[in-house]
From TrEMBL:
Reaction(s) the record says it catalyses: alpha-D-glucose 6-phosphate = beta-D-fructose 6-phosphate
Location of this chain's protein in the cell: Cytoplasm
PROSITE patterns noted in UniProt: P_GLUCOSE_ISOMERASE_1, P_GLUCOSE_ISOMERASE_2, P_GLUCOSE_ISOMERASE_3
InterPro entries in UniProt: G6P_Isomerase, G6P_Isomerase_C, Phosphoglucose_isomerase_CS, SIS_dom_sf, SIS_PGI_1, SIS_PGI_2
Catalytic residues identified in the record: 353, 384, 513
Family: Belongs to the GPI family.
Name listed for the protein in its UniProt record: Glucose-6-phosphate isomerase
């Protein structure tokens, strides 16, 4: 039976139709003064307020029934112990094993892989420490000053996002990221770098991704302008991170410079593996492990907390309610801290590449909505861009506000006066964050009485009732970032269990890659385009 025909789903559907879907959140708050306390969960340095959602106790009970009906607790166990949960590729999805503490009681395949994980972290630590200490030398004997990560998707976004978020920590080397296939980033960056002191990290799970390999070739050509011996070039200027040692060797990367991970680590779940190499360069292995510890804290919570008190479970279920019963199909990620600039892009891949699917695990087309369109931006900037649509558009949108309570990075900036004005700016950011979620929830009811008359216009009407979560981090640190990302990974898994889809494959992106290859052959090698559609033919003829 499809999940949307099941008793638990039907009950939720009836609840939504019984008036709840049309009820304004404002009335729930006035009816229940304890609502904000009751619909909140705290775990260590992370706090979730989910009270600004169109839910009540009946809805929550119904969602938990749905979770039980879908055997969620069992699925969580299957995930964290390393059973094959990625069935189309016949693999476990063991990102949690990368952050499990050895001997901490993990069982199953998750325990078996621990030695492999440790040995790669040991090798990674040796390389990281050597570079950070200035002992890794380029071809002319000078220490490396610049490290360029070449990767795309999961081999780029995690390290990019985290190193930007933890920017306050001074790295002994400058870090750069190249991802896009078009060559702009590479050509711009290379003009600013010196071959003598630049090291490239080729990060690719498959080591077949054309985007990464083409940028790598350009980097190699640039090094060859100055370095004659290919052996020197490879040994001193390239490190590879992949699941494919054979392909790294074929490309010329010596074994000593190869860091491995495994097919049971999904690309978008891989920043906890050696793919996190740039993160370790930025914050040291200690900082990298603190991020893993934060994620591990969330893993343990996910695996052991009762469903009703389980942050990823509640967030996932409330999203399911919004999507499948309130017809909301867009989600905004709104961090109120510019250090989290790349978090929305990171979550776009994590969530949409995981759950942007329309067939269930049995290969049948589903007849209900799955992943919403997810996008975002640093909140204060988004206020001056797309919040107009959130407040007055015709599109229902759910939002996640993410904000640190304290800024402990400002102390790095000298001068008490500057410090005071930066703290004032932080309070402005907090105030804006709280004000926006309040207006999205209340709508016109947020207008102060003294201003009511001047807002008496259809152009100044705010419907409100747009649901949101607020996630507060004590501070933004390697640990809280680890907790936050693991939270979203698990929340995404919870949704996939309800929708009965496999969140760990990504067949949707494969065909485009194949067709791009064929198209390239036509463009670059003059292969006939006659079999293409008229629009594509016309576009290609213009290029020719
Ligand atoms: O790490 P790789 O194998 O180069 O892949 C990069 C990215 O490409 C994808 O396969 C999608 O094209 C992602 O899932 C992955 O993170």
């Amino acid at each position: 039976m499809a999940v949307n025909q099941s008793p638990a789903w039907q009950k939720l559907s009836d609840l939504a139709k019984s008036g709840i879907a049309d009820k304004h959140m404002q009335s729930w708050f006035s009816e229940d003064p304890a609502r904000a306390d009751r619909y909140a969960i705290e775990l260590d340095e992370i706090f979730l307020d989910y009270s600004k959602n169109r839910i009540d106790d009946k809805v929550l009970a119904g969602l938990l029934d749905l979770a039980n009906q879908q055997d969620l607790s069992n699925w969580i166990m299957r995930l964290v112990t390393g059973e094959i949960v990625n069935d189309t590729e016949q693999r476990p999805a063991l990102h949690s094993a990368l952050r499990a503490v050895t001997g901490s009681g993990v069982t199953g395949y998750a325990a078996e892989v621990q030695l492999d994980v440790e040995s790669q972290f040991t090798k990674m630590a040796q390389i990281v420490n050597k570079i950070r200490a200035g002992h890794w030398r380029g071809y002319s004997g000078k220490p490396i000053t610049d490290v360029v990560n070449i990767g795309v998707g999961g081999s780029d976004l995690g390290p990019l996002m985290v190193t930007h978020a933890l920017q306050v920590q001074q790295s002994p080397v400058r870090l750069h990221f190249i991802s896009s296939i078009d060559g702009t980033q590479t050509s711009n960056l290379l003009t600013t770098l010196n071959q003598e002191t630049t090291l490239f990290v080729l990060a690719s799970k498959s080591f077949t991704t054309i985007d990464t390999l083409s940028n790598a070739e350009t980097a190699k050509d640039w090094l060859e302008e100055r370095i004659e011996r290919s052996q020197t070039l490879m040994a001193q200027h390239f490190i590879g991170v992949s699941t494919r040692p054979d392909k790294m060797s074929e490309w010329g990367i010596p074994t000593e410079n190869q860091l491995l991970f495994w097919d049971w680590v999904g690309g978008r779940y891989s920043m906890w593996s050696a793919i996190g190499f740039p993160i370790a360069l930025k914050v040291g292995m200690k900082g990298f492990f603190q991020m893993l510890e934060g994620a591990n804290l969330m893993d343990e919570h996910f695996a052991t907390a009762p469903l009703a008190q389980n942050i990823p479970v509640i967030m996932g279920l409330v999203d399911v309610w919004n999507i499948n019963f309130l017809d909301i199909h867009a989600k905004a990620i709104l961090p109120y801290d510019a250090r989290l600039k790349y978090l929305p892009s990171y979550f776009e891949q994590l969530v949409m590449e995981s759950n942007g699917k329309s067939v269930n695990r049995a290969g049948e087309k589903v007849s209900y909505k799955t992943c919403p369109i997810l996008w975002g931006e640093v909140g204060p900037n988004a206020q001056h861009a797309f919040y107009q649509l959130l407040h007055q558009g015709t599109q229902a949108v759910m939002s996640d506000f993410i904000v640190p309570v304290e800024r402990d990075d400002f102390e790095q900036h000298s001068g008490a006066e500057k410090d005071a004005s930066l703290h004032k700016q932080h309070h402005l950011a907090l105030a804006n964050c709280f004000a926006q979620s309040r207006v999205l929830m209340l709508g016109d009811a947020a207008i102060p009485a003294s201003l009511k008359a001047s807002y008496d216009s259809p152009f100044k009407h705010y419907a409100g009732n747009q649901p949101s979560n607020t996630i507060m981090l004590k501070t933004l640190s390697a640990k809280t970032l680890g907790m936050l990302v693991a939270l979203y990974e698990h929340k995404t898994f919870v949704e996939s269990v309800i929708w009965e889809i496999n969140p760990f494959d990504q067949w949707g992106v494969e065909l485009g890659k194949l067709i791009a290859k064929e198209t390239y052959a036509c463009l670059a090698e003059g292969v006939s385009v006659d079999s293409f559609d008229a629009s594509t033919q016309a576009l290609m003829k213009r290029v020719k």
